[in-house]
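Box 3.1 A note on notation
Throughout this textbook, protein chains are presented in two layers. The first layer is the amino acid sequence; the second is a token string describing backbone geometry. Keep the layers aligned when reading.
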Amino acid sequence: MHRSTPSTRAGKAVQDGGQAVRVSAARALVPVITGKGSLADLDDHQVVTRDRALFKAMCFGVCRTLPRLEALATQLLKTPFKARDADVQALLLLGIHQLLYMRIPAHAAVGETAGAARLLGKEWATKVLNGCLRRLQRESEALQAEVDQDPAVALLHPRWLLKALRQAWPDDWRAIAAANNAPGPMTLRINRRRGDREAYLARLIDSGHEARLCTHSPDGLVLDTPCDVQALPGFAEGDVSVQDEAAQLAAELLGPVLAPRPGGRVLDACCAPGGKAAHLLELFDVDLLALDSDATRLARVEDALARLGLSATLLHADATQRGWWNGTPFDAILLDAPCSGSGVIRRHPDIKRLRRSSDIPKLVELQANLLDNLWPLLRPGGSMVYATCSVLREENDEQIEAFLARTEDAIATTPQEVSWGRRAGAGRQLLPEAENHDGFFYARLKRQG
């Protein structure tokens, strides 16, 4: 028995993938544990098809439980590994994770992980890894009880973030942390141009996928069990996309603005990876300009729109500047602002290592610059929806409060009678919920005149 949190879905019944997949996972994790990279490039690693699910389960699982794994590694090691041996450190974390969180036979978790050091050209480490992991097997309960005395370890979050969550949500911070630690569900958005969700639900069931309707988004469905997107009926044809329910609500907020104005001019600033832009185009007859400062991510938007059979003007540009603007005002602007990502940690668990408390003031400043720069591009009477995937108030309701205070022609029109989220100043805040939506903030603003 152990006192760990539940294992990831992907790791519940995986079979041993041998030493090679563990080496690939260790190499993929080194940039994360050293604070120099993310999990964004996992698909670039060469892993045989049969081992890809195990590879991803290991990488995401280690990041999800990293504070606890590192605390246990410190207890198990007599002396820390040198910086040049970060790959061996990653193997140790992988071994601990397999023993505590994955349904992999203990002999395979220990033997294959220790043996993987040979493939790294570090045979000396096999004995060290083997000794550490066998000690964990013998002393699991005592070691876990000791490290779990630290709330940051027990709740699997960096100390600064736990403090921030507690300050922002004194009654909910533990529930937020628990939701962050569990994998989010696979949520779909049907393309309403190609059918309704009840009909698509029937197609899912016919193809062997159990699912349920989303509570708040009229276009959303939640799968009981995640699957490869290519296994979804009609995915290649553009019938459906993957998008969290909270993210789908942007279109709901812009609906009352766009529906009465066919052909309206809309700006989706910071548009990548394109889910919200696509949703708007599926629902409304609009002239959409999708802008992003990252050319690589903008290419993903182009691919997503092509699969869905949708068209928009794509522009690689910086939304904090105006050199790209042709002077024609927009009827609506969606500003999905860069943020801490504190509401989507369950989908991007490397945030726990890569995000720093010092990042927050810089993000708040960037968000304010974006608001101030884009607001004059809105026609009088037009509306802006400000969104973040954050649960930190300085990025959300406090950001909007400050903007309203300095912007005379801006008023808040966020509907407060909706069933989702909770009132947060002039906006609505959704907190992450297990088996439901991610954490998100929305505020709708109207330009008077």
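Residues 186-242 form a domain with the Alpha-Beta Plaits fold (CATH 3.30.70.1170). Confidence is low (pLDDT under 50) at residues 1-16.
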